[in-house]
Design a protein that fits this description.
The chain is 73% helix and 3% strand. It is mainly α. Strand 3 and strand 4 form a beta hairpin. Helix 2 crosses helix 11 (272-298), helix 6 runs antiparallel to helix 12 (301-307) and helix 7 runs antiparallel to helix 14 (338-379). Pfam families: EamA.
């Protein structure tokens, strides 16, 4: 497998942070919209986590179309020939159904929780993927970690914990019902952390075992996800909610439903801002997932999870600016109490320190291995 230069690594990781941040911000922008489809509509809330997951898979499927173009290039054919000579075979696309299922459930958990948690806290909780990726890659890939790498991961987790408690130490005024929704959202996020840790690890295993282009893996995950969520969204459009869930479901003719695909498209057609947020969200996810897979292929699944942490700072800063610059409750994304902000800054400091320690050490280890390999070749 060819290696990336340090410049390309820096560009790759920077793009991962930027587009990962934009993806979360645009989906939160969608959730902030109130769009009435006609004069009789009294609901107007854009509450479509299932359809949002569906659009995420549209973004991933677009990568498959890009892959078909890449597959026709001379560069790809040379890579395939080299891999074939090294004993790497093409992957069975049914194996990609495994990470696609993890992505299907994990993304849904995230999009549901985005309705009830600040975007920065939501993203911070996903940093737990660092721990699950490290544990699972140790078990499944037999990866060894240095003391510095372990210290980096631990610092990140401490930062995650500090920021996570900020909203509870300095809570904003809210109803008891909203507090319960936040607790449920946190548990959903913790569940998604395990799923994504497994997904990252199994994807890295695929890259080591088979010849597969990153666009190919994302694209087929998108294909499976679209098949799954087409069935789910159509089914849930006609599935009534139990009464206990009425406050989180979508009303229609006096009944409440888990999803309403028709209402999603009606709202989309009525708002230019919503159209922008959805289309730009799809494009951001396409680029972001391509960057993620490239990191997993050329670096590691834990590096992907750890560097992904840096996007939290950008999300937090943008969300805080939006929350402070508008009086609309729909755009009140972050806890703006001074105490909460101070705690979050401290937590972010731990996260950044952990990221620097881990990546600096990982780069040194990689360079040492390359030097040793070159010396061995020279002696041979």
């Amino acid at each position: 497998m060819s290696k990336l230069s340090q410049t390309k690594k820096s560009i790759l990781l920077t793009a991962l942070v930027i587009f990962g941040s934009l993806a979360i911000i645009t989906f939160n922008l969608q959730n902030s919209q109130i769009v009435f489809v006609d004069q009789e509509d009294t609901y107007g809330v854009f509450n479509h986590p299932f359809m949002q997951t569906f659009t995420m898979f549209i973004a991933e499927f677009l990568c498959l179309l890009a892959f078909f173009y890449v597959k026709s290039t001379e560069s790809y054919k040379n890579q395939y020939q080299e891999a074939n000579n090294n004993g790497l075979k093409r992957i069975n696309i049914f194996l990609i159904l495994i990470p696609a299922c993890c992505d299907s459930i994990g993304a849904l958990c995230i999009y549901i929780s985005l309705n009830f948690l600040p975007p920065s806290v939501n993203s911070i909780l996903t940093c737990g993927i660092i721990a699950t990726s490290a544990i699972l890659s140790r078990l499944m890939l037999k990866r060894m970690y240095t003391t510095k790498e372990i210290q980096g991961c631990l610092l990140v987790l401490v930062g995650v914990a500090i920021v996570g408690i900020s909203g509870f130490v300095f809570p904003e005024e809210q109803k008891q019902e909203d507090f319960k929704k936040q607790i449920v959202s946190i548990f959903l996020m913790l569940f998604s952390i395990f799923l994504y840790g497994f997904q990252y690890t199994i994807e890295e295993k695929y890259y080591k075992t088979y010849f597969i282009h990153q666009l190919e893996l994302i694209g087929y995950e998108g294909m499976w996800g679209l098949i799954i969520y087409t069935i789910i969204c159509i089914s849930l459009t006609f599935t009534k909610c139990p009464q206990v869930l009425d406050n989180v479901c979508i009303p229609h003719n006096g009944e409440f439903y888990f999803e309403r695909a028709d209402y999603y498209f009606q709202q989309f057609s009525q708002s230019a801002l919503l159209q922008f947020a959805i289309i730009f969200g799809i494009l951001s996810i396409s680029v972001y997932n391509t960057m993620c897979q490239t990191v997993t292929k050329y670096l590691s699944c834990v590096t992907r999870a750890l560097v992904d942490v840096a996007k939290i700072m950008m999300i937090w800063i943008i969300s805080l600016i939006i929350s402070l610059s508008t009086s609309s409750s729909n755009y009140h994304w972050e806890n703006v109490r001074l105490g909460a902000i101070i705690i979050e800054v401290i937590g972010f400091s731990f996260v950044v320190a952990g990221e620097i320690i881990y990546n600096f050490n990982a780069t040194q280890v990689e360079d040492d291995e390359e030097i040793t390999q070159n010396l061995s070749l020279q002696k041979g």
